[in-house]
Records
---
Amino acid sequence: MDVVTNILTLAGYEGLVFGIVAIGIHLTFRTLSFPDLSVDGTFPLGGAIAAVLISQGANPFLATFIALIGGMGAGLITGLLNTKLRISALLSGIIVMVGLYSVNLRIMGGANEPLLRDITSFDIMARIMPGASKLIVAIVLVVIVVILVIGFLSWFLRTEIGLALRATGDNEEMVRGFGVDTDKTVLIGCAISNGLVALAGALVAQNQGFSDVGMGIGMIVLGLASVIIGEALFRPRGITMVLLAAIGGAFVYRLFIAIVLRLGAAPGDLKLITAVLVIIVLTMPFIRKKLRGDWLPPAKRW
Amino acid sequence: MIGIHMNQTDSILKLRNVTKTFARQTVDEVIALSDITFDVHNQDFVTIIGSNGAGKSTMLNIVAGLYPPDRGGKIYIGENDVTRLIGYKRAGFVGRVWQQPDLGTAGHLTIEENLSLAILRGKRRGLRRAVSKARKELFRKELSLLNLGLEDRLKTPVNTLSGGQRQALSLVMATISKPSILLLDEHVGALDPNTAKTVLELTDKIVEREQMTTVMVTHNMEVALHLGTRLIMMNKGKIVVDIDAERKRRLKVSDLVSAFEQAAGESFDDDSILLSHAEHMK
Ligand SMILES: Nc1ncnc2c1ncn2[C@@H]1O[C@H](COP(=O)(O)OP(=O)(O)O)[C@@H](O)[C@H]1O
Ligand SMILES: [Mg+2]
């Protein structure tokens, strides 16, 4: 394979798998207006659960599913801290993220859990596709997962409960005025969001052959960057398009990272590069307004 | 106080000794409602006027369940004691439209999505499709009665509508699932005069057609006299004037001002109301 195809397929796989994270983050940050930072902890939680179960001989698909459920549980806790104990959304997420660090260490019995000799979901997929390269196998499996995720959310967000959830992030007081218990819609949203992030963590751990307690660092920033890039590039309208734009944004973001690495950046530099990239995309609309000479209100702090 | 009807069986809303104190036992303590006992009967259309801070919004908020009254007060809707029922649990009984157009609708959602949310007022929400064919048909029918062309724009995000259109939509949303009582809090207060007139006409039409029991706060005396079947004036947390349909028909704004002065035992000095009075005179 030549370099360009190489970079594109790699970004394709990573865009899809981190696109699932971006969709989860879209659900909380955008749909619910709930800035949930717990994802830095739920991503490795998903990896840890899947890796430990698989290394103990569990069916890898079942292990992946249980990882998703575990992530939903963590998201539920974040939601409960906010809705029932009235801790701010931002702090609720941070508290859960910090707590999960210890939980993840406990689950793995250490800082990481290797999967070298174990049969992962990707290994099973490879058996179905003899002759295909490792990366193509990974892409096919992740495409299937992404189709399931987008299909589920496109359906769910159009149901009566799903509509109430979307309206909660828009005008909570009004939604309550129509008899919706918005605590419940927030809990459902946080659970699904973190479930998806843990699912992505489980897939990444299986594909890279190990789970690591630090693998979630920067996940929020990465996911937010993807969401924002997707919105800016594709200006999506409608539920399904918004979800696809998150995947597209993640792909563009990973492509950018792959190119930067090619150009000689060290893997350790990536977090800083991402941080700078996020600053740039976040401030773009602001700078455009500033250049136009618009009147700008003071900064928001959520 | 004039014309309080007690122990009527057809009361939709009953307030019994309702007092509301804000910031109790601080220097900012305010008694927003002071021992109010008040009945709204089936198909009453009550208009409420009163100076700023009289307690009009507080009364509507307490009926809607935004906060409870002080201990001892009771609120009944129909036969139900709702005093301790938190807001979203009594939403099945109470429809509301606020002053600011963006409060009554979800701006990022489309017209049909907003209406789908509204049509399930107080009902269990499940995993059925929220915007169904049958519902869309109903929405078109309801919206076409407004004569604003909204029936052809079901997929339009609500934040692209004008303030008047949003208030008209809020009215339909508030009434489409037939709550026991409709609360309007200066719902045309943020609109320009022409739009305000249109929305008031729509209000009258909808209340009439749906035979809604309605409580409407307005700062415009003429509107308060012209619309509705009963008029109430509030001052300092109390209902000081209560006029039935019969007397209301014969009343003029100047009568209203003197009725207020007599009841409140003070001269009428609220700028905003005198202003709408003056507008009426010219
Ligand atoms: N949430 C609140 N906290 C503290 N004081 C309030 C609150 N709501 C209303 N008040 C006070 O209660 C009084 C009545 O207010 P309100 O019912 O809004 O009057 P109106 O709608 O008749 O203008 C005012 O003095 C107001 O400042
Ligand atoms: Mg008011």
Note: The first strand of chain A starts at residue 112 and ends at 114.
---
Amino acid sequence: MGILERFGEKTIAFLEYLGGIISLIGETIRSLVHAQIRYAETFVQSYELGIGSLLIVLLTSLFTGMVISLESAQQAVQYGIGSLVGGAVTYTSVRELGPMLTAVVVAGRVGSAIAAEIGSMVVTEQIDALRSMGLSPVRFLVVPRLLALAIMLPLLTIFADIISIVGGMWIAQAYAHINPASFISSARQAVGFDDVVKGLFKSFIFACIIAFVGCYQGLSTRGGAAGVGRATTSAVVISIILIFGTNFIMSYFLFGGH
Amino acid sequence: MEPTIYASLEDVTLSFGENVILKNCNLKIVRGAITCIVGLSGAGKSTILRLLDGLIEPSSGHVYVDGHDLCHTPERKLVELRQKTSLAFQFAALLDSLTIGENVGLPLREHTALSDEKIRHIVDDALESVGLRHIYDSLPNELSGGMLKRAGFARAIVTRPELVLYDEPTTGLDPIVTNLITDTIIRLRQKLDGTAVVISHDLHSIFRMADYVAMLFEGAIIAYGPREEIRTSSNPFVQQFLTGNEVGPIPV
Ligand SMILES: Nc1ncnc2c1ncn2[C@@H]1O[C@H](COP(=O)(O)OP(=O)(O)OP(=O)(O)O)[C@@H](O)[C@H]1O
Ligand SMILES: [Mg+2]
């Protein structure tokens, strides 16, 4: 009985969460359709988000590219197929690791900051003040952050892809004496332009997840400073889980069939 | 002539969880008049202003402002309606990412087509009227609580709204600024023929500016009337509140 009740409560809480996020998405789309966009704020957010995340994105992708190259080069050279290393590194970077790692890093850095900022605006009545002035918090806060993420995350992903391939190329040469020309020609064979586009599409979806979850957690903050802390943590946890989940689903439909 | 009603609470009950804050509360706000609400700390005065601004919904009952029922109205419509009303928050609630000048000018920038220059001019005037100068470019976290409160006050009056809700506009301010703010509220009412609801604990300024006084106690308005009527009321609750006596029907 107790278990059933608790299960029911959890189900209701989940449905409420889902409903909340969906209505947030609906209101955001309405704002976008009516072109109610604060361009200056969007620009500032994009700039801060992009510049602020660039270094950490570059570092994580560089080391990831290097480690994939290290592992695959070791195996490949043993079996005499060192010419395939470029393909392996590029393939995994562009299709999976570039978009995923960038999204996870940005969820940790930016998703948390969005939830914390909006959450503290809730507890200090700044959100009520906006509503009271006849300004929609969605138009004022959510839309610029969503747009900034939707523009910058794919851009950061492009940088991540490139640096991870360059790092891989360097290790392949230094460690397994695979020359860059053969690395690149193998990369070209393995990965087409459509793979790059699909990877960027993924990162666009991840951007939406980070923005909506961060904003929603922030807006539904209750209970002072501790509430802001909880909102921040759950924004990161929930968006990372959703990123991994949707990544699998998207890979299945985008790449799985072929 | 019978005064016309601009806003009202009708049989409003509001609870947060188990905690009943307002119980069948009725209140009328007369058009073009200043109505002061008094009551104990935690009685639900700020809650009444939030209801009148449509920021929260009652558990039951109705809230009318200028003929519109604010209950069961979608947020989109409320956002529109709120442009005629403004609320000066008890703790200012300025946006801390904007400067004081940007905060005060925000409603003008968003809702009017005025030029930046004109807005700057109006904002300077509004800041001046609450005794704040030279803080146009300061950020909220660089100011004292009293200064923030006054900037919040300036933001609330800058659009000349039909209904202004002031939540303890003078609490915690020095006597001179208190007079300045009280004068500003009176002046705005006369000049614009606007309606105001003021929450205050400051009896001196209440009896200077109020046209009507309402007393909130245990979730309902237990006394309401023109200022003189309340001042001379024989209601033991009102008497005790006005004299600040510890002995009486209001438990301490
Ligand atoms: N969001 C909320 N959740 C739970 N309880 C609340 C909430 N907001 C207000 N309350 C409760 O409602 C009651 C009335 O609060 P309100 O802020 O309206 O009081 P007040 O009359 O303005 O007091 P003060 O003079 O101290 O400002 C308080 O007991 C408070 O605990
Ligand atoms: Mg209050």
Note: The interface with chain B takes residues 121, 124-126, 128-136 of chain A (CB under 8 Å).
